[in-house]
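Narrative of accomplishments. A recurring question from our advisory board has been how the design workflow behaves on a single, concrete structure rather than in aggregate. To address it, we present the structure tokens for one chain from the evaluation set, followed by the sequence designed for it. No filtering or post-editing was applied between the two.
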């Protein structure tokens, strides 16, 4: 759990002529909604914008006209470029580096390179191997760099031998909490022990049905428990219907105030069936919530079993319920796991991610100018 984070700002005694040369980075994210990848895109842009005067970097974002990211970037000085598909948005001045943040963005970046010669890097966030198709080979081979957010994704990319590969993990969002809202939640759930879950309600990915089965198993033995699930998604109605008989399950929907809920959780359950990394786990760690998660894909990059959390087999409600039950009876172990997890978070901050990407941007732009 380490990440190099060299800084490119001026050091004391540095002369102005040694300052970093201006660099324009064009981010591309053509996703329709707002999920983990879009949150990470925003965190990177905001971190880079906060140091723009020191680094000499300027930024633009190519995104859909209905993208939720637009409002969040209103006061950052980032130029927004409209593109509802990969063929749009190519009339702006050439950028020094293009950063593709999701699959459709890779196609956009490849076309931009064909039109203007802009080098691009891509970030791969999903754990499934890239399909070996002609256009994927073309667009990945055209990239100056493929960035993986976890070790399993890095392995898949290296096995393809399509482009140079580096790893830069996703980071915590620094989800704040408000004392008044936290107090209201504590009053609302008074007398209950909250086991929390945050994630898109897409069972084939996040495994909420595994969590519901665990809630069913613990319902009578642990009547004080309340499983509180935050998020929305395509399986929302089906999951709510399937849990209608469970009085220990509460669906909260989407909320921008996840930090408030993390403050009232005794445990965090994350039974994903597949996961690129699981950056939500970092927010739980930041709030000191002990974690029980699936041993799958990139999650072990963040959690070492019985050191910084508890790992269980995926798709196994019995193992999940037993792990939760054991931790509830062992507060000293919960405190140890939470403290160890929190101690590793320095490598997973937006500033660390921005420093790593900035180093890659400068290397790519420098090579392109040679």
């Amino acid at each position: 759990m380490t990440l190099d984070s060299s800084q490119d700002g001026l050091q004391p005694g540095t002369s102005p002529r040694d300052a970093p040369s201006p660099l324009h980075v064009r981010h591309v994210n053509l996703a329709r909604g707002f999920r983990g990848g879009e949150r990470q895109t925003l965190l990177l842009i905001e971190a880079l914008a906060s140091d723009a005067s020191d680094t000499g970097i300027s930024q633009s974002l190519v995104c859909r006209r209905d993208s939720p990211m637009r409002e969040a970037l209103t006061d950052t000085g980032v130029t927004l470029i409209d593109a509802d598909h990969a063929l749009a948005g190519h009339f702006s001045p050439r950028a020094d580096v293009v950063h593709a943040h999701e699959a459709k963005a890779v196609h956009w970046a490849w076309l931009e390179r064909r039109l203007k010669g802009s080098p691009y890097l891509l970030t791969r966030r999903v754990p499934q191997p890239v399909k070996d198709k002609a256009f994927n080979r073309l667009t990945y081979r055209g990239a100056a760099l493929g960035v993986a957010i976890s070790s399993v994704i890095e392995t898949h990319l290296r096995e393809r031998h399509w482009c140079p590969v580096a790893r830069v993990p996703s980071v915590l969002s620094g989800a704040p909490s408000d004392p008044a809202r936290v107090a209201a939640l504590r009053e609302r759930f008074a007398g209950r022990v909250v086991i929390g879950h945050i994630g898109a309600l897409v069972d084939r990915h996040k495994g909420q049905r595994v969590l519901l089965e665990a809630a069913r198993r613990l319902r009578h033995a642990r009547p004080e428990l309340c499983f509180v699930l935050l998020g929305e998604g395509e399986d929302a109605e089906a999951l709510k219907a399937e849990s209608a008989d469970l009085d220990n399950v509460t669906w909260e929907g989407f909320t921008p105030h996840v930090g408030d809920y993390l403050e009232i959780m005794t445990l965090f359950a994350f039974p994903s069936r597949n996961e690129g990394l699981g950056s939500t786990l970092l927010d739980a760690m930041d709030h000191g919530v002990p974690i029980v998660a699936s041993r799958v894909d990139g999650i072990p990059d963040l959690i070492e079993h019985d050191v910084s959390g508890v790992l269980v087999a995926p798709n196994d409600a019995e193992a999940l319920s037993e792990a939760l039950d054991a931790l509830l009876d062992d507060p000293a172990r919960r405190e140890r796991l939470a403290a160890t997890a929190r101690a590793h978070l320095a490598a997973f901050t937006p500033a660390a991610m921005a420093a790593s990407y900035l180093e890659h941007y400068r290397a790519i732009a420098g090579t392109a100018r040679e």
